[in-house]
Amino acid sequence: MILGIGVDVVDIARLAAALERTPALAARLFTEQERGRPAHSLAARFAAKEAVAKALGAPKGLGHLEAEVRCDENGRPSLHVTGKAAEVAYELGVKRWHISLSHDAGVAVAYVIAEG
């Protein structure tokens, strides 16, 4: 059963400019494993973090580092949630996450489904 759906879009150039302007921002938004990727990949991951929050009902107190996008050896993305995000997901009965990332024409998009 679908418990929540979230989608978000991010302007790649805008995120890249923000990260260049404020270098410490990367550590506040992305886990160590996510950092160092190209701008389009970071934008998709930021969109995924926002989509996770939406799928959980946008509860107060979520941090961007609590949702991490990981990829398997074939590049297929998956979500790993910790902290408040994991607590809320548990309370809602989330058993599995589905995620899709894409980028084109200067925009990155992420779609997240919380399944129970």
UniProtKB/TrEMBL annotation:
Cofactor entry: Mg(2+)
Residues annotated to bind Mg(2+): D8, E50
EC id: 2.7.8.7
Main location: cytoplasm
Top-rank EC class of the record's enzyme: transferase
Ranges where the 4'-phosphopantetheinyl transferase domain occurs: 4-103
Alphabetical UniProt keywords: Cytoplasm, Fatty acid biosynthesis, Fatty acid metabolism, Lipid biosynthesis, Lipid metabolism, Magnesium, Metal-binding, Transferase
Function: Transfers the 4'-phosphopantetheine moiety from coenzyme A to a Ser of acyl-carrier-protein.
Family recorded in the similarity comment: Belongs to the P-Pant transferase superfamily. AcpS family.
Name listed for the protein in its UniProt record: Holo-[acyl-carrier-protein] synthase
Taxonomic source organism: Nonomuraea soli
Lineage: Bacteria, Bacillati, Actinomycetota, Actinomycetes, Streptosporangiales
Gene name as annotated: acpS
